[in-house]
Design a protein that fits this description.
The structure is a single chain. This protein has one domain. The chain is mostly helical and 133 residues long. The protein contains three helices and no strands.
């Protein structure tokens, strides 16, 4: 039983580590999502400046167009990164769920083994008492 108990304890530690990895992946995804939102906000501001009729903005229209191009490229790159991070979060969550299921199965096996052992001990005690009489 000691080896089985160790197995569930090891799996419990692995589950904790896996959940931590999952949280880290979620934080990375959240940071990327925030960054994309900031870039989208910047893109909207550049579009407003390009469409503005104020003379100061017309002088910088070429600069705004270049900036918009850079922001668009960065947004596309971050969209790809975000997609990869979403898949990573899902993969890490699935790993954690599987480890948790294995831990529960190991714990159930240990509980059944302990119950079986206690029944065997009870039978041995009962038989020992009967032999003494």
């Amino acid at each position: 039983m000691a080896a089985s108990a160790k197995r569930s304890d090891k799996l419990k530690r692995l589950v904790a580590v896996q959940r931590h990895i999952e949280k880290m992946a979620e934080h990375e995804l959240a940071a990327t999502t925030r960054h994309r939102a900031e870039i989208n906000q910047s893109m909207e501001e550049v579009i407003e400046a390009i469409g503005s009729m104020e003379p100061v903005h017309r002088q910088f229209s070429q600069h705004y167009a270049e900036r918009f191009g850079r922001l668009t490229t960065k947004e596309r790159q971050l969209a790809g990164v975000q997609q990869i991070q979403e898949m990573k979060v899902l993969k890490e969550r699935t790993k954690g769920d599987r480890l948790e299921e294995n831990m529960k199965e190991a714990r159930d096996h240990e509980d059944r083994e302990a119950a079986d052992n206690s029944i065997y001990e009870l039978i041995e005690i009962t038989l020992g008492v009967q032999l003494i009489k």
